[in-house]
UniProtKB/TrEMBL annotation:
The keyword Signal applies. This is Outer membrane protein beta-barrel domain-containing protein. It comes from the Bacteria. The keyword Signal applies. Keywords: Signal.
């Protein structure tokens, strides 16, 4: 008997994980531990600088809902994402110039409350590049935002007199989006999700988002993911009477999600 006859047959390499063809649906509920940085102004009040950690927001959180739904196959993807929050935070005024607030001392504080709805819808077409376990889609869509802001000013002037002024405004707008959505399957359990988008209607009105997460399929129907998300908004409107709504913010922080897949 020759030595070659004793050689043990080597197993063939396992094929790469290929996403299942056909329509797949995913309903997701998630929690986003976001912090807030930016500024806001309503009407004739000066712009208030905002800087709230997740702890600050959680302490003042009055309600929240976050969820998404995605349908995809080997060619197309469709998705919607909805965020509603009611939060409060404190800010500080940037006072300058010779206007009606010039007599205020620096360090003026403001009580800030915000109801915000962010609804995003997108559709995409798969880009046939990369390994078979990568699903990459180019996307177009729209993001609608509605913000109700209440500002309550309380301060003592240099003359020692008290000053308190409250104002509120609500506005909504939509921005067209272009972006991508990608899923990379490491194996039948672990996967990586990423998406990004950008939209603008003018140099002062724009939005952008980035998200990346690592997920685990516990069963064919249930999965969880942990990731990080950033959402930027810059919006301003005004009128010829001097009133305006000014809102610039960055929401950022980690998130955790639970998904039902079918």
């Amino acid at each position: 008997m020759r030595a070659s006859d004793l050689a043990v047959a080597q197993p063939e390499p396992a094929p790469p994980i290929v996403p299942q063809l056909g329509w797949q649906f995913q309903a997701t509920a998630y929690g986003w531990a976001s912090a807030l940085k930016g500024d806001a102004g309503v009407g004739r009040l000066p712009t208030a600088s905002l800087d709230a950690s997740f702890g600050d927001i959680l302490k003042n959180l009055k309600g929240a809902f976050m969820g998404s739904f995605i349908a995809r196959n080997d060619t197309f993807i469709f998705g919607v994402d909805l965020i509603w929050t009611r939060i409060g935070a404190d800010g500080r005024f940037k006072v300058g110039g010779d206007g009606p607030f010039a007599a205020l001392r620096s360090g003026t504080s403001v009580s800030f409350q915000q109801d915000q709805t962010i609804a995003t819808a997108f559709a995409g077409y798969r880009i046939p590049i990369g390994p078979p376990n990568l699903s990459l889609y180019g996307t177009v869509g729209v993001r609608y935002q509605n913000i109700n802001v209440e500002l309550d000013l309380s301060h003592t002037t240099v003359l020692g007199t008290g000053l308190r002024r409250s104002t509120s405004d609500s506005t909504g707008w939509a921005d067209p989006l272009i972006g991508f959505a990608a899923t990379y399957h490491f194996n039948d359990k672990w996967y990586l999700n990423a998406l990004g988008d950008f939209g603008a209607t003018s140099s002062s009105n724009m939005t952008a988002q980035g998200l990346v997460s690592v997920g685990y399929n516990w069963t064919q129907s249930f999965s969880t993911a942990l990731g990080y998300r950033v959402l930027y908004t810059d919006y301003e409107n005004g009128n010829d009477r001097g009133g305006s709504f000014r809102y610039k913010s960055t929401l950022y922080g980690p998130f955790v999600s639970m998904s039902y897949n079918f």
